[in-house]
Design a protein that fits this description.
The chain has helices spanning 3-22, 29-52, 56-74, 81-98, 100-123, 125-131, 134-141, 146-149, 156-177, 183-205, 209-242, 249-280, 288-315. The chain is mainly alpha-helical.
């Protein structure tokens, strides 16, 4: 393509578009239609120049012109409470539901791994000896020991904030590091299950497994579910790098990345609820059955939220990505 000839042929159209944009909202109906047509043609011109005869100065000028025109044609969109309501009633539960084929198996396999580690530690005194000295292990597992006092070691409000921050960081790491083929996510899951398995094994060997479960289950059900969802989403993102499907890898990663970003926001709220339970319910004087019951109710509410509300939203076409009107067109539309 002869760039000079192309510019000479279309310069008048670009100047007319700039003139119409300079008038703001003071356009007649015919002028508004003309602006839309010129915007579409200029977007096509920009695409042709970028692919056939890239010129930095001309590309920069037309990019700015197309961006101004698009903002004028589509209007400026502001976030509102409607967006927040839509996110929590459709986008987030749909995204969690659609990733269930990743996080549900991750949850099941991780739970089995944690139980196996706990059994192995409880059944082998030599493994317990490798973890710590007998006196240190007794201090951790005895009534009033480290495992029990941990949940009341700080004021409830500050403890809730600390727990929330740590868990949100772990979930964010699963989501972000998933792009590295999911391998760091598997390591994070293993570390979580190792810590859980050590607690199960040591308290079981001391004959106090029921006490340990009474401390873990109230908040752990919801907390671990959030971590499993984050891990499943990270693994799904990692698999997208390997197999993007019919889409280009860039497009597939962009879609999954936006969904993962929204997932991070939603899981932050879920982990905040879990942190409140861990700070105010777990160390409370409520009977064990009541504390566990609160944890089961919270877990059941989240699962119902995902598998009822999320499934309904997914069947309606929701994917967890941003609204189509907020997406930039993959290719400019020709006039």
């Amino acid at each position: 393509m002869d760039l000079d000839v192309f510019v000479s042929a279309h310069r008048a159209e670009w100047q007319r578009l700039e003139q119409l944009l300079g008038r703001g909202r003071r356009l007649t109906g015919e002028e508004a239609d003309e602006l839309v047509a010129l915007y579409q043609r200029t977007a096509t011109h920009l695409s042709l120049i970028q692919s056939s005869a890239p010129d930095p100065m001309l590309t920069g000028r037309l990019t700015q012109l197309v961006a101004r025109a698009r903002a004028t044609v589509t209007g400026t969109r502001r976030s509102s409470w409607r967006d927040a309501a839509r996110f929590f009633t459709t986008s987030f539960p749909a995204a969690v539901y659609l990733s269930r084929r990743w996080w549900v198996p991750a949850a099941l396999l991780s739970t089995v791994l944690g139980a196996v580690i706990g059994w192995w530690i409880a059944a082998h005194p030599e493994v317990q000896a490798a973890i710590g000295a007998p006196a240190a292990l007794r201090e951790m597992t005895q009534p009033g020991g480290g495992y029990e006092t941990y949940y009341s070691s700080h004021p409830a409000a500050s403890f809730a904030a600390q727990v929330w921050t740590n868990n949100a960081k772990a979930a964010a790491m699963c989501l972000v590091l998933g792009a590295f083929l999911g391998l760091p996510v598997l390591w994070i899951l293993f570390q979580n299950m190792l810590n859980l398995g050590v607690g199960i094994g040591l308290m079981s060997s001391a004959g106090r497994l029921d006490t340990f479960l009474g401390l873990i289950l109230p908040h752990g059900l919801l907390e671990l579910t959030a971590v499993f969802v984050a891990a499943g989403t990270g693994l799904r993102l990692g698999w997208t790098v390997i197999d993007p499907g019919p889409r280009t890898r860039r497009t597939a990663l962009a879609e999954q990345g936006r969904a993962a970003l929204g997932m991070a926001v939603g899981l932050t709220v879920v982990l905040f609820v879990s942190g409140l339970i861990e700070a105010f319910v777990t160390p409370s004087g409520l009977p064990t059955w009541a504390r566990i019951g609160i944890g089961v109710l919270a877990e059941g509410a989240f699962l119902a939220y995902v598998f009822v509300l999320g499934r309904r939203a997914a069947r309606a076409g929701e994917t967890g990505d941003v609204e189509r009107s907020d997406l930039t067109a993959a290719r400019p539309v020709a006039a």
